[in-house]
Design a protein that fits this description.
Length: 235
């Protein structure tokens, strides 16, 4: 699983799956450009990266911010290999309780953010004739539940975006992988990381291991979809 000198952009890298993935890929030799809105947490991550991680704070839904992230990768390392669209969050309410601002906020990060970062990276990936775009979605990109209309709609949108993107870029040698996780013990959940009720969930490090496996396949192999759950979760 050699990632030596692979250049990787990871959004939502300040905590959870993004943070764990940044650290693991760096340990395996990748050069990681980590972005998120929390500059302080990103700086801590950069320090822990032992020179392999570069922190670039920014809003994933902001075109200028994501253009700057991609340009940083190109300026510092000369090329770009992998983009991991990991930034995301959820609000869980019944439809008539969701505010317009809440709807717009989730869609901006989960859907628009995936589009904006991917769009910023595509010219470089197309020009070099290879690359890998990963979208960390959720198993709810394929199922729904009461109280999940907003979050599941955003994940179904990511699923559709990936499907079309995959057809557009395969001829350029660019891989597209959708990662569909079940329950993960992270700050994403209302009760927070490490709560007693989530002790059997996947850990962020489990998801990072999955990411490393996906990204280190031979050049001729693409994992289009990768779904992973904790054993205790029914699907």
């Amino acid at each position: 699983m050699n990632m030596q000198n692979k250049v990787v952009i990871i959004s939502g890298a300040s905590r959870g799956i993004g943070r764990a993935t940044a650290l693991l890929l760096a340990q395996h030799g990748a050069k990681v450009v980590a972005t998120a809105r929390n500059a302080d947490e990103l700086k801590t991550l950069e320090t822990e990266g032992n020179g392999q991680i570069v922190a670039v704070p920014g809003d994933v839904a902001n075109e200028a911010d994501m253009t700057a992230v991609v340009q940083t990768a190109l300026d510092k390392f000369g090329h770009l290999d992998i983009v991991i669209n990991n930034a995301g969050f959820g609000i869980f309410k019944n439809v008539d309780e969701i505010t317009i601002d809440e709807w717009d906020s989730v869609m901006a990060t989960n859907v628009k953010g995936t589009f904006v970062l991917t769009k910023a990276a595509l010219p470089s990936l197309k020009a070099q004739g290879n690359g890998h775009i990963v979208v960390v979605a959720s198993d709810v990109a394929k199922r729904t539940f009461a109280g999940g209309s907003l979050y599941t709609a955003s994940k179904y949108a990511q699923e559709a975006f990936m499907g079309a993107l995959r057809k557009e870029v395969r001829s350029f040698g660019i891989k597209v992988t959708g990662v569909y996780s079940g329950l993960v013990d992270s700050h994403f959940h209302a009760k927070g990381h490490g709560h007693e009720t989530s002790k059997g969930y996947l850990q962020s490090e489990d998801m990072a291991d999955s990411m490393l496996f996906i990204l280190s396949r031979p050049a001729h192999v693409v994992i289009d979809e990768f779904m992973v759950h904790p054993l205790e979760q029914e699907y």
